[in-house]
TrEMBL record:
Pathway connected to this protein: Protein modification; protein glycosylation
Protein's recorded name: Dolichyl-diphosphooligosaccharide--protein glycosyltransferase subunit 1
Free-text function comment from the UniProt entry: Subunit of the oligosaccharyl transferase (OST) complex that catalyzes the initial transfer of a defined glycan (Glc(3)Man(9)GlcNAc(2) in eukaryotes) from the lipid carrier dolichol-pyrophosphate to an asparagine residue within an Asn-X-Ser/Thr consensus motif in nascent polypeptide chains, the first step in protein N-glycosylation. N-glycosylation occurs cotranslationally and the complex associates with the Sec61 complex at the channel-forming translocon complex that mediates protein translocation across the endoplasmic reticulum (ER). All subunits are required for a maximal enzyme activity.
Highest taxon of source: Eukaryota
Quaternary context: Component of the oligosaccharyltransferase (OST) complex.
């Protein structure tokens, strides 16, 4: 009997209860829709927090993170097809009071409206989304930032805050409420199938090789023939492309499958360098291209000597506007180097691999740190990769000896061959 009473006491005492459950949702464009949800949750014995999102939208979201006090929270996503929902379970830091932020991007959420058009038609997007997540006893407020709105449809009363924002709530949602609207935009909704950035750490400089595959303008497709001058009147097209790179960059090489593109140029400034990369043909709606870029920059821009080891700092961001489906960053260190530490924010959408790569002229191999990022909005990525490593002086000496031996051997063979021919 005493045991039963004690068990009931423990169950009652340890049962999690919520006394405050509020969320403020902000929906903005960067240029793709970004949702930020600021949760304020209070109660007793709160170890986890549950909320629900529509299943169809979960198939279109990426870069999902939850952060409290600068620390990324662990979470689990459970699909419930029978209810057409997903449940997100967030592990909390404080059992009594928590204030954390979850955010994600809506990828593939924008539809061209119309999907095909003539040059005289206005360019519009159609965006449909839910207003608030669902949770127990939740009170929700949604702020919807507008961009050149054309028409709007929603199932809950809103109030206008200024000329560019709608406010919904606060209210207690019992079901998903959706909003749909058309808007005009002069933004290029660019997407990238694959971006690979290979950073080679050499003795005196750093060499960067980049491959960009399937860079696509997702604008509405033109449904009529047009001549070469018509694109000047096209509202959404890409005729020039620029990206910020490391300071004091030099020796730009810009090419596609046809060959070198001589219109590319590099402008260096005291604090940054800019690559200007016009595609071989302007990118109209539905058009895409692939290309590669090579350049160098000084070693001391990214590498510092810290006592007996070196510190390499590389931004994971590639200066693109739009969603990159697959980004690969390869850091190739000098032959024989030993990695002592690798530091970067551990994101759920990042995969890390470390392996050794053979090197010419020496039996020492080059360590390679490879990071693969899935479905990333580059304009919203500020993460930094930091690598500490130690160089191997013997590797450099060995390589110099082997290269000198190979060079002298080639010269001797050439001289012997010339002597045989002359005789």
């Amino acid at each position: 009997m005493v045991g039963v009473i004690l068990l009931l006491f423990i169950i009652c005492y340890c049962h999690a209860t919520i006394t405050k459950n509020q969320v403020e949702v902000n929906i903005d464009f960067t240029p793709f829709p970004k949702r930020t949800m600021e949760f304020s949750v209070e109660g007793d014995h709160l170890k986890q927090y549950h909320f629900t999102l529509p299943l169809n939208e979960s198939l279109q979201m990426t870069q999902f993170t939850c952060i409290e006090n600068g620390k990324e929270l662990q979470f689990e996503v459970i699909a419930k097809p029978e209810n057409e929902t997903i449940e997100v379970i967030v592990d909390l830091l404080d059992q009594q009071k928590n204030k954390f932020t979850c955010k994600y991007l809506h990828i593939d959420a924008l539809e061209n409206y119309p999907k095909e058009r003539s040059l005289s038609e206005k360019y519009k997007f159609l965006f449909t989304t839910h207003l608030c997540p669902l949770s127990d006893h939740i009170k929700c407020t949604t702020l919807f930032n507008l961009k050149s709105i054309q028409s709007i449809a929603f199932s809950i009363k809103s109030t206008t805050e200024g000329s560019n924002r709608l406010k919904f709530g606060p209210y207690e949602p019992t079901e998903f409420k959706f909003i749909s609207y058309h808007f005009q935009s002069s933004l290029h909704p660019m997407t990238y199938g694959r971006v690979q950035k290979v950073v080679n750490i050499n003795e005196d400089n750093i060499y960067v090789h980049m491959e960009i595959d399937d860079m696509k303008n997702n604008g509405a497709i033109l449904n009529k023939e047009f001549n070469r001058n018509d694109f000047n009147y096209e509202g959404i097209y890409l005729k020039d492309f620029s990206m910020e790179v490391e300071v004091n960059a030099y020796d730009l090489e810009y090419r596609d499958s046809t060959g070198l593109i001589t219109t590319g140029r590099l402008i260096s400034r005291p604090k940054s360098s800019t690559l200007y990369l016009p595609p071989r043909y302007p990118l109209l709606g539905g058009w895409k291209t692939s290309f590669e870029v090579n350049y160098n920059y000084p070693l001391d821009v990214s590498v510092q000597q810290i006592k007996e080891q070196k510190r390499l700092v590389i931004p994971l961001k590639v200066d693109f506007k739009g969603i990159v489906s697959n980004e690969e960053v390869d850091i190739v260190l000098p032959e024989g180097a030993t990695i002592t530490s690798i530091n970067y924010p551990k994101r759920s959408y990042i995969e890390e691999t470390v392996y050794n790569q053979p090197s010419f002229g020496t039996y020492y191999k080059k360590p390679v740190v490879q990071l693969i990022l899935k479905e990333v909005d580059m304009s919203d990525n500020t993460d930094i990769l930091e690598i500490y490593y130690k160089e191997n002086p013997a590797a450099k000496r060995t390589k110099n000896i082997i290269v000198a031996f190979l060079t002298s051997s080639i010269i001797i063979i050439f001289l012997l061959y010339a002597k045989v021919i002359n005789n």
